């Protein structure tokens, strides 16, 4: 399951974008 990886990447991208 890559859900955990996807969530981590998206979360990091959101934090970086913000």
Structure explained in plain terms:
This protein is mainly α. The protein is 83% helix and 0% strand. The chain is built from one helix and no strands. The protein has one helix at 3-17. The longest helix is centred in the middle third of the chain and has 15 residues, at 3-17. The protein is rod-shaped, with a radius of gyration of 8 Å.
Radius of gyration: 8 Å
Most strands sheet:
none
Order of helices and strands: H
Shape: rod-shaped
Q: Helix- and strand-based class? A: mainly alpha
Summarize the structure.
With 18 residues, this protein is mainly alpha-helical. The chain has one helix spanning 3-17.
Keywords for this entry:
18 residues, rod-shaped, mainly alpha
Question: What topology emerges from the helices and strands here?
Answer:
Layout: H1 3-17
